[in-house]
Amino acid sequence: MHNFDLVKPSSVAEAVAALGSEGAQALSGGQTLLPSMKQRLAAPERLVSLTDIAEMKGVCRGEEGLVVGAATPHGVVAREAKAHYPALAWLAGEIGDPSVRARGTIGGSLANNDPAACYPAAALASGATIVTDRREIAAGDFFQGLFTTALEEGEIVTSVRFPLPERAAYMKFAQPASRFALVGVFVAQFADGVRVAVTGAGEDGVFRWTEAEGALSADFRPEAVEGLSLSAEGLLGDLHGTPAYRAHLVKVLTKRAVAAA
Amino acid sequence: MPKDGGIGASTLRREDIRFLTGKGRYTADISLRGQAHACFLRSEVAHGRIRSIDTSAAEEMPGVLAVLTGEDFTEVGGNPTGWLVQSRNGATMKEPKRPVLAHGKVRHVGDAYAMVVAETYEQAKDACEAIEADIEELPAIVDMAQAVADSSNRVHDEIEDNVVFDWGWIEENRAAVDAAFETAPHVTTLELVNNRLSPNAMEPRASIGDFDSGTGDYKLYTTSQNPHLTRLLISAFVMGIPENKLTVIAPDVGGGFGSKIYHYGEEAAVLAASKRLNRPVKWVCDRSEAFLSDAHGRDHVTKIQLATDREGNFLALRTETLANMGAYLSNFATCTPTFLHGTLMAGPYRTPLVYVNVKAVLTNTVPVDAYRGAGRPEATYSLERVIDKAADELGIDPWEIRRRNFIDPGAFPYTTPVGLVYDTGNYHATMDKLRELSDVAGFEARAEESRQRGKLRGFGLSTWIEACGIAPSNLVGVLGCRVGLYDAATIRVNATGNISVLVGAHSHGQGHETVFAQLIAEKLGVDANSVEIVHGDTSKIPFGMGTYGSRSLAVCGSAMMKAADKIIDKGKKIAAHMLEAAEGDIEFTDGSFSVAGTDRQKSFAEIAFSAYVPHNYPLETLEPGLEETAFYDPANFTYPAGAYGCEVEVDPETGGVDIVRFTCADDFGNVINPMIVQGQVHGGVAQGIGQALLEGVVYNEDGQLLTGSYMDYAMPRADDVPSFTVDHSCVTPCTHNPLGAKGCGEAGAIGTPPAVVNAVVDALRRAGHDHITHIDMPLTPSRVWTAMQG
Amino acid sequence: MKVTMTVNGRPMSAETEGRTLLSSFLREGLGLTGTHVGCDTTQCGACTVHVDGEPVKSCTVLAQDVAGKSVTTIEGMANKDGSLSVIQQAFQDHHGLQCGFCTPGMVMISAALLNEKPNPTEEEVRHYLKGNICRCTGYHNIVKAVMAAAGADSRKLAAE
Fold it and tell me: Which InterPro entries does its entry note (chain C) (predicted)?
């Protein structure tokens, strides 16, 4: 990779200041950024490591739900969210592999918004709030297409607040090579309705399957989505699956998630 | 009971200690004083004419020591192919030039056309980005059928139809085969693709060139399965360095599976750069580069037809195959789809008439060569798939149709209609053993239990045979091989009685350091711990042809036995002298030399000591020293065979396939170390499962590689495969080598793919998907689901 | 920039650039070449080491980012007297390695598993090891070795 300077701030304020310089980029767990830098697809001049910022770490049950520090690795979420939000914990525990989970973080995953990443589905289905150094962004506004988010230049995610659903489950069908989600469906039932978020399938990244949400809000059983079919239009197609296959999987996984919730 | 550390014992591997403690020494681990680092600039287009390469900016970059291009290698030769195959019209095949660095044209994405050497790797890589190459992009030739049809677009300008050869085997039989098809009561036809694979040894290739200007000696450390062959190619063909001025060292090598048999341009390039700079030059491939430059495997498109009578007796078989060569002919590329494929088309069956046609086609893709199994997996897959289809069409049980056509155990030696003579075998025995281990009776209950969980269970059977122990030089010479395929071993008994065995085979996972010591321990009656196996260094070892084609034990092991016989003969001479007896009266048993019928004896150690402290020797008749070399050239191939059974569960909602049982019953002849043999089968089976379900190299129509990393090329992982049941209790010892050994390294990769595909097709057809008769590998969830949609 | 960390129990230092990966720091900076690099996409796991007790892929961690931390590599896995540790011995006893290239990573990830879960099932072992690729063994004997190291009766795994 091209060379760069690494700085390691110990507070959010320091990190934001460091990110103000030309060519600076935030580095969280680095499990996506570093491989892409090795391929020389990214060449920041300065990397600002967020791994030593204590205030960005940890899982904490608050009044408005579960607050996960943005620099919390997946493995920690898998362990510590289990008692509060098992579906989220299970999702975190299925990302990558144990070594990737020891480094990769929720903030890094959300900020990257890979169309096949798992966390965006949890955030969108939970109606999570993405908290940054300067504002709060509803998940529905945060994800803005492939590898694109509402984050401004130099803005960093500091934590994510998950409202706790009554029931929820995540189903992931892994792409055989990368083990990212070929399709992942997160179903969450709240008092005011059901939210279904789909990752891995959309050309524009994570999206909500509103038709299923309506059906499941009326009747939270797998059978409720039986008659629905998701259009393959706007879905990803690649050597691992056609848009039609992905559309089909969305429905299968939605049913399975409802059954498991 | 085998003796501890002797033949038949599952002796633990001595090499494990260094690998388990981080003390293995792979090429990338070696740092020579003053070494510089190389990086190769590789083509981003599949096909292009090099108009100019401007290296001036790169040369000015920090740390850069040299920039080399194809121009720097116009004076040296190219990398040749090892086999000249004749077309069926008698014409010799066309052999395009393969330069060290691309010259004139780039012919595949990843074709290296420049090399930068710098103080650090990153500097070299930075400088590669500063090279300005003007390359006129030409239309990519990717699809084989199109390559053959369109002679206006050529991978090599001098080869007009992109066809290297059009091979018929055996051409004289063609008319008879066609006639049999005319009159056959039933003909089963299947068109299939044997998917292109990337070998993916976990250690990426690496090479260090080290020229000594004081002596003029070259040393090459490299990731090779056969250092002598690499030396021979570099010396005789590529660079003209005298063989005695070039040492090739293949230290610990992290797996090969075929991909490290071949000589690659990077090896010559680091040697040339080292000479130019008078410094060692090191290159370590990264995985992305490996996908673009390591020889790929398989990639056949085949139409196979089987003619039978109504009872399922095989009457004739014919195949037409397009075999992808890629952009250049790699060293074994031409023999893989021919003599390692066509000659196996009889399988373990009595089919009286067989004709095989193979066209070898050049495309703008990475060169294709032998990968674990090499040709034999392709043959076995075609055959075992068409047999299952025929059984289905004729309403005959898959076990029964095979049993009906097996070569009878009493029929050996058996001459096949495709030019081989099987020396021994018992295909009924291995299939019966498989049946016993597969719990066929319990299948319906298991299938029902799967149904309860919404899964479709299927069973797939395959049998396999291969010709390995490669190879009789006389035979391969007739077939166009440019080298001999013997192997060699030197046994050096040291004065203190311990033994160094210098072997031509190279160990890169096979456990030779342990197994070969077992052989010598048994043969010479010494403690295995006193035997050291030396391999992988051309300056230490007399000669050798390396490790591939399941040959190490059958060929190099036999050379060791021959050398050991010479040691015993010499020991007898020494003992006769020491014991004052006639040489003919000396017997050698359990490590001691004795005078027949007496208790007078000398231990092996005493004989060894005397050989090096030859006081009172009759020097006219007895030479001091105890060191012997033997070359062993096999009289025939060896023919291991077996039967594999696979049980799968298909998820009808997703198309996902789970392998729930996998059972192997193999006949490897005599086995030296069962633990290691079983490990070889496990690994081969996993690679076979990889081919069947997961792996496939995919190019788009522009010749861009879509599976260029583990993000898209699916390697079998721990949770993709089950534990396996493997059995090798059926033994028909090889009749023509001293060990009775046949070889086991490739078996799993050969027998597995058809068993898996047969199982998936069986599961789907049992569930009523009658329209499905075949799905091409890899059987990804997406492909299986799509097939189910009709 | 000079980076110091505790490697296999001893403080060790080497010069680094910002881009120096932990794997390069160990291999080139410290000469600990037991940690191998088998891919460039954080998939194969040959480079697995422990940082503060947790497994990481050292090819995807910056050396400067883990300065001051405690790192364990394959070179630090044997017993103090140099004999093989329980996990290493299990790999030898059950032929859990062939070419040896993925082996350091396999040993490190297996050790992490057994720290986290001393008595895993076969399925749990396979699941935990999925980020470490082996091309030689088909995983059969690796799984067996890990089970044996955990004290399980490995004969129950599959008939041979």
Answer: 2Fe-2S-bd, 2Fe-2S-bd_dom_sf, 2Fe-2S_ferredoxin-like_sf, 2Fe-2S_ferredoxin-type, Beta-grasp_dom_sf, Diverse_Oxidoreductases
Q: Which residues of B touch A241 (CB under 8 A)?
A: 781-782
Residues C147, C96, single domain; the answer is yes
The reply to whether C70 and C8 lie within a common domain is: yes
Cα atoms in the 13 Å half-sphere on the side-chain side of B385:
32
B710 at interface of A, judged by CB pairs closer than 8 A: yes
In a domain, B154, yes or no: no
Q: Tell which residue, B382, B415, B367, B426, has the closest CA to residue B112.
A: B367
pLDDT, tens only, A168-223: 999 999 999 999 999 999 999 999 999 999 999 999 999 999 999 999 999 999 99
CATH of domain A57-162: 3.30.465.10
Is residue B712 within 8 angstroms of chain A, CB to CB? yes
C8 and C70, same domain (yes or no): yes
Stretch (H or E) spanning A199:
strand A193-199
Q: pLDDT of A36-91, one tens digit each?
A: 999 988 899 999 999 999 999 999 998 889 999 999 999 999 999 999 999 999 99
Q: Which helix (H) or strand (E) holds B41?
A: strand B36-42
Same domain, C66 and C95: no
Class of domain A167-260: alpha beta
The HSE-up count of residue C125 (CA atoms within 13 Å, CB side) is: 28
Are C92 and C69 members of one domain?
A: no
Q: Pick from B731, A101, B655: which is nearest to C60 by CA?
A: A101
Residue C110 domain boundaries: 86-153
DSSP secondary structure letters along B247-296: EEE--B----TTTTTS--HHHHHHHHHHHHHTS-EEEE--HHHHHHHS-B
Q: Which helix (H) or strand (E) holds B314?
A: strand B314-326
Contact C137 B682 (CB under 8 A): yes
pLDDT given at position C155: 57
Total of domains in chain B: 3
- ipTM, two decimals, is 0.97
Residues C26 and C57 occupy one common structural domain: yes
Cβ contact C133–B122 (<8 Å): no
Assigned domain for C159 exists: no
Tell me if A3 and C62 make a contact (CB, 8 A cut-off): no
Mutate to test the interface with B, among A34, A178, A180, A253 (most CBs of B within 10 A): A178
Q: Which of A46, A99, A103, A114 should we substitute to test contact with C (largest number of C Cβ atoms within 10 Å)?
A: A99
Put simply, the answer to whether A241 touches B654 (Cβ < 8 Å) is no
Chains touching A by CB (3 or more pairs below 8 Å):
B, C
Contacting chains of C (3 CB pairs or more, <8 Å) are A, B
| Chains linked to B by 3 or more Cβ pairs within 8 Å | A, C
Question: CB contact, 8 Å: B44 with chain A?
Answer: no
Query: Beta-strand (E) ranges in B524-591?
Result: 531-534, 586-589
Sort out which chain B residues have CB atoms less than 8 A from A3's CB and list them.
122
Among C21, B41, B116, which residue's Cα sits nearest to residue A3?
C21
* Minimal CA separation from C153 to chain B, in Å: 15
Flag if A8 and C51 touch (Cβ within 8 Å).
Answer: no
Contact state of B785 with A245 under an 8 Å Cβ cutoff: yes
Name the fold adopted by A5-49.
Answer: 3.30.43
